[in-house]
Model the fold of this input.
Amino acid sequence: MPKDLMLYFHIPFCISKCAYCAFYSTSKWDETTLDSYTNALINQIDSFSNSEDYRVLSVYFGGGTPTVLGAERLCRVLDTVNNKFKLDASAEITLEANPKTIGEDGLKLLRANGFNRLSLGAQSFNDSTLKLLNRAHTAADFETCFANARNAGFDNISADLIFALPDESGEMLGYSINKLISLKPEHISIYGLCIEEGTPLFLRKKEYAFPTEEGEEAQYDMLCKMLSNAGYTHYEISNFALIGKEARHNTGYWKRVPYFGFGAGAHSFFEGRRFSTPASVTDYIKKSAKGFLSPTDYAVAPIISAAEAEEERIMLGLRLKEGVKIDENRVPQIIIKQGLGVYQNGVLALTERGFRVSNTLINMILS
Done:
């Protein structure tokens, strides 16, 4: 029987760096670099050992901004995947996109060549906020891209929104939610703004007004209620979906399905180890022709112990609405008494209130 596997491709190129972004990405690139990076990805795929032993459930192109690579290069990479691996008949193939970096012709080419899910970064529908965040698109750009994606045949589109944004009121957030709901994407991801040290927003945070903890809580509650009323199920801490449109790839992460990451800065969970590729486009290009593991630190990554695997199972499984099996004596009763979780038939599932303090609750359970 083939083993289940997911594939992730990190495309670290952007038009400009978002003010809040702490992921590895670079706005310094040219066409030669994009060609070399594409060839490096293809080399690493081609050198993958025993690919016939795996059934690929999902393929995810993230970044950075993958669409900076261009539709033709992306299709070359996916064609190589199709030739090297056996993809499940219902494999989910997702591409993240910035609305400013792809037009209708490119979207049609991507859809015709096997990409079947699109993840678009909206973040906000307020242009002043988008400018503050140094996003490359406007609200109108997003709506145009969304319409182009529908015209290109994408019937599974996810959109991202950020709440707890600087200088943005609850009323402004409500406007963004209503605008997004009106477009009817199949999936919506929401993230509370995290101001990471070293980012441009961190360096300028004193210039802006951020919501209080109570204000952030109110925004989260509003998001949950509005999306629920619009027919979206809150199936994971940060994710909502129409029935049957839950993200297969992200759900696989929380259920500890093995995945292999290609590209500079990519992470993997493969053969019982968690390892990564150094965040350097130059190093990745140099090393990718020497074997599929050569760009990574696989050789020095420790094998995950049984105890560590059990902790991961609980920690990741509690991100999902369905919860996770756990012995009753490991469930702190305060979680149940305060309405932060429900324990039934040996399964602990966090409530929406519990999702908001999940890190604290997980630490209580694992301590």
